[in-house]
Here is the input.
Amino acid sequence: MKILVPVKRVVDANIKVKVRSDQTGVDIENVKMSMNPFDEIAVEEAVRLKEAGVATEVIAVSCGVAQCQETLRTALAIGADRAILVESNEELQPLAVAKLLKSVFEKEQPQLVVLGKQAIDDDSNQTGQMLATLAGLPQATFASKVTVTGGKVTVAREIDGGSETLALKLPAVITTDLRLNEPRYVTLPSIMKAKKKPIVTMKPEELGVDVTPRLKTLKVSEPPKRSAGVIVPDVKTLVEKLRGETKLI
Here is the structure.
């Protein structure tokens, strides 16, 4: 069984980004980039399924600039067998990425696609759902537990007010939540082995996909600074202050 794992190159989660002076976006020059944390969980889950004998091959795929090869090398170091880079300098929006992944899915014919529920840079939470729709596949989002048996995958997921368990026929699309697993620490020997694993590079044109952005960002700005708190002597003063400032009481 093949498992396809899309991974995205994003600004490291520990970095505080700054808005560009022209407010066209955030400044990522000379900023540490890493694999999207949710995608790292997806790679870990795919590798665990392979180690359990459920899967035979794990393929990592990334869409973006040439530097995404670094992200793919991380996926290979975690345990993926090979990688595919769909290289493009365009601003790849969720629908374009979903179309590219659909084309890769059709070429590779995996039985399972596992990807992060969202990327921490845009928080769109759209790509997995769009891929499932475009490819006509069943989907389970926000997975906290995944079990594959007898041509089906069972996914436990948390929902508002409780939890639910879904059974999907393969092939299927799964998006991962934080509770699914804790990714392993990548060791130096694994990093060295990853350098010998193959990465195939292709262009969107080869896949017959138009990745021209459909949305235009008009302005990016810093959130307003939080005003200082005020200490009041008693509840009566608090209520009067709330009534005067919010007009809700």
Notes: The mean pLDDT is 91. DSSP finds six helices and 13 strands in the chain. The radius of gyration is 21 Å.
